[in-house]
Each structure stands twice: as structure tokens, then as C-alpha cells.
Amino acid sequence: MSTLTIRLPDDTTERLKALAHRRGLSLNKLMEELSAQALAAWDTENHFRTLAATGNVEQALAILDRLDAKPVDGESEVAR
């Protein structure tokens, strides 16, 4: 495990401490959780960018057209 020193404005530090306290976490555990969320979002974005770069635009648009043509459960064609 690594140790990381970061510089934050005092008010940001105090707000993060308050958030950690409210969640019943240490500041360290809160930062670990927030980091994991940020990395998961980044990984998801990269995954979709990779899929988009290798995808077939015509096929994707055809799928969207088919989805647009199907009524949603409980929705009439008129409501669309």
C-alpha cells in the first residue's frame, strides 16, 4: 500500500472530514472510496470509447431505429 500526500484548500479538507464523519468513515477510507468511484467512471468511459471506435455506426443506428419503433410497456403508439 502506498502513502499519498495531496494539497487541498482548507475548506475542502474540512468538508471532506465532515462528509467522512457523516458516513461513519475515516478520511482515509472516504478518499479510498471516492478514488474507486472516479476510477470506475474513467474505466467505463474508456470501455465505451473503445467500443465506439471499433463499432459499426450503421448497425448501431439500426438498433436505435428498432428501439424507437417498439412501444414501451403500457405506452400506446399515439402517446409516442
Automatic annotation (TrEMBL):
GO annotation terms (biological process): regulation of DNA-templated transcription
Pfam family, one: RHH_1
Residues covered by the Ribbon-helix-helix protein CopG domain: 4-34
Highest taxon listed in the record's lineage: Bacteria
UniProt name for this protein: DUF1116 domain-containing protein
Protein species of origin: Thiorhodococcus minor
High-level lineage: Bacteria, Pseudomonadati, Pseudomonadota, Gammaproteobacteria, Chromatiales
